[in-house]
Structures are given as C-alpha cells and as structure tokens.
Amino acid sequence: MAISRKRIGILTGGGDCPGLNAVIRAVVKTAHNDYGMEVIGFKDGYEGLIENRYMHIGIKDVSGLLSRGGTILGTSNRADPFNFPVLQGDEYVHLDRSSQAVLNFESMGLDALICIGGDGTMNATAGMEKKGLPVIGVPKTIDNDLVGTDVTFGFDSAVVSATEAIDKIHTTAQSHHRVMIVEVMGRNAGWIALHSGIAGGGDIILMPEIPYDINCVCEKIRDRSAQGKNFSIVIVGEGAKPIGGDMVVARIVENSPDKIRLGGMSHQLASQIEGITNIECRVTILGHLLRGGAPSAFDRILATRFGVEAVHMVAREEFGKLVVLKNNELSQISIQAVSGKQRLVGCDDPIIKTALSLGICLGHPENMSLEDYCSSIPTSSKIKFE
Ligand code: F6P
C-alpha cells in the first residue's frame, strides 16, 4: 500500500448533532498517528469549500473534543454547491458553485474530502463525486434516516435525551392524572419517537409512517383509565399526522435544500384528545434539545469508529463510499446508492413488533393487524401550514 503524506479535507454539513466533534477527533488522530497525513477543516460545511474558508486541524486542536457537542467547524443546511444561495441586491439567487468548490479543493493540493452529514449533505457529496472529487461520507443525523447503515451517530444521544425527558414527564402525568404529550424531532422518520417511546415507557407512540386514527388513540386512553391508570404518556414524532390529515409545518426556510421545518402537531392532537375524552392534556415539544449536549457513550464509540475507518479508506483510496455499520461491523456502500433516499420505519420492523407486544398503541385499532391497517389507509403527503 503506497501511502505518503496526504492532505485530507473534512467538513460537517446539515443540522448539528452530538458526535460530530468525536468524528473530527478520530480523523485527525488516525491521520496523524497511522499515516502522517495533514487535515484541513472547511468551515460551515460546503460553504467553506466554496468560499475558501478553512482551518488546519492538528493533534493539539482535538484535545477535549470527544465529549463536546456541536461541531468546531460550524455547519450549514443551506450550502448546496449545485444550488448555492448568493445575495444579489435584496434577493437571493441560486447558482451552481460546484466548479468553484472543485477548484479550491485542487488548488489546496487535497487528496480526499471526508464529508460528515445526513441525506442533504450526501446528495451534494454524490454530485461532487460525479465532478471527480475523491469523497468519503460519514453518516450523521439524530433522525437515523440514512439508508445503507443500521444506525447513524447522533441518534442514540437524541434517544437518551428524549428518554430522560419522558421519565421526568411521567411524574406530573401521574400526580395530575393527565395525558402528557411529548413531541420529538425526526422529520419524516419515526425512529426517535419509537425508540424513546419504548425506552421511556410511553403508552401511545405516533409516527409519520403510520397515520393515526384519533378514536383509537382516545380508546387507549379510556381503557387505561378504566384499569385505574389515570394518566397516559403519548410520544409523537414531529411528522406524525392523522388519517387523511396533514403534517404540521412550523416554518419554511428559504435557501435550504429541504425548506420545510415540521413541529407543533402535538397541540392539534391535545385539543382532539381533550375534545373526545374530556381529560386534561399538556404538551412538551423537545425540539433542538435533542441535538444538543454531549454525545452518549454509544455515539462516542460509533463516531470514533466511523472517523478512524474513513481515514483508512483514504489510505486505501476507496473513494465515493459512505462508511456504514451493518450488524455491528463497519463496511462501505456507494454514496450514489444512498443519495435522494430516506430510511423510514417499516410496519414489519422488529422494534415495531416489540412495541405491539408491550401493548403500546401506535394509533391503529387493536383488533386489526398493523400491516392490514397501513395498507387500508390512503397515503397522503399533503402538508398543512400553520
Ligand atoms: O435533521 C435533523 C433535524 O433536527 C430534524 O429532526 C428536524 O426536523 C430539523 O433538523 C430541524 O432543522 P432546523 O435546525 O433547521 O430547525
């Protein structure tokens, strides 16, 4: 294996999450210790590569990074090199700046670009690969919705934070005999809702993938009351919607590749439940709390494994690949294969079966199989603007 002093570029793109700094640390340590490679970090995702804003990251710079949330490089969820927002007068126009990015990469004498990000960043990275850049992807997102990997780093930390919150919510639910609704992030995927709902002992879990029947939700709450359990905990993914209804949009972010920001559907759910059951409800929206703070031990290890492997891939010149975890083994898949796709919760997922065996209501009638329910309801992707 012919390995000489290579220069690696690295960037973090999309929403931040716990574990980004742990990947950067692992990349810098492995590059330095195993190969004597140099690492250049681009600031604010692809924006830094396009605008030539970067920093050298040496071994001293990564001290204390393992447990630190966020990203020392900064990030952006608006910096698509192929559709880059540029202010002209009072208005943004979108330009293809991908050739500028390639030019900057080449003029810095870089041998590889490690891109840490979710689906938006991987779409851009797939495009940069087509333009000839030697890219390697590292899968990040609290949403856990990247295809090709069993898990992304950031997800476990988000589930830990949500579970701690649900544990706390339990006490007020029990003391006041209320229905407490906890809304979690996750965009179009219900992974965070499902995992934190099970870990936190939730009674009802509603996810974007399974449009809920409000009458089934209320029946579950009433059944619990009839059994003397005068409270219920409902965990809701931000993209959840009733049958025939719409997702609730909190805001539109212009210049972002995915403009829609979800959030707030639990208020609608609370008034429906109060209207039907006459039981008092309260809503807690966890939002960005799930993206902040120190990574969990699981995420520190996963992020570190991904970072170390990404540098070995640079050394082996295995470009155009995303490092992934499959059955707890590291492997790689083509970035082109993950581009433009989302990994959603399937009705037949083993963790769904776990939830059903526990008697958790997923918003469907108890006397109907989930598969039959899902295939019986019309799919609607309409979105409601608040
Ligand atoms: O993709 C991560 C995520 O936190 C989603 O769960 C959420 O819908 C979105 O990003 C929020 O984005 P922003 O930070 O732009 O509000």
Structural notes for this entry:
It is elongated, with a radius of gyration of 22 Å. With 386 residues, it is α/β, with parallel strands linked by helices. Helix 1 crosses helix 9 (297-315), helix 5 (155-176) packs across helix 6 (191-199) and helix 7 crosses helix 8. The protein folds into two domains: 7-153 and 295-338, Rossmann fold, CATH 3.40.50.450; 157-291 and 346-381, Rossmann fold, CATH 3.40.50.460. The model is unreliable at 381-386 (pLDDT under 50). The strands form four sheets. The chain has a seven-stranded mixed beta sheet, sandwiched between helices. Strands 9-10-8-13 form a four-stranded parallel beta sheet, sandwiched between helices. It has helices at 20-35, 46-51, 98-107, 119-130, 155-176, 191-199, 214-226, 265-277, 297-315, 335-338, 350-357, 370-376, and strands at 7-12, 38-42, 54-56, 84-88, 91-95, 112-117, 135-139, 179-184, 204-206, 232-237, 247-252, 260-262, 281-285, 321-326, 329-334, 383-385. The protein has twelve helices and 16 strands. The site of 6-O-phosphono-beta-D-fructofuranose has 14 residues, from strand 12. 6-O-phosphono-beta-D-fructofuranose (F6P) is lined by residues 15, 77, 118, 141-143, 185-187, 238, 253, 261-262, 291.
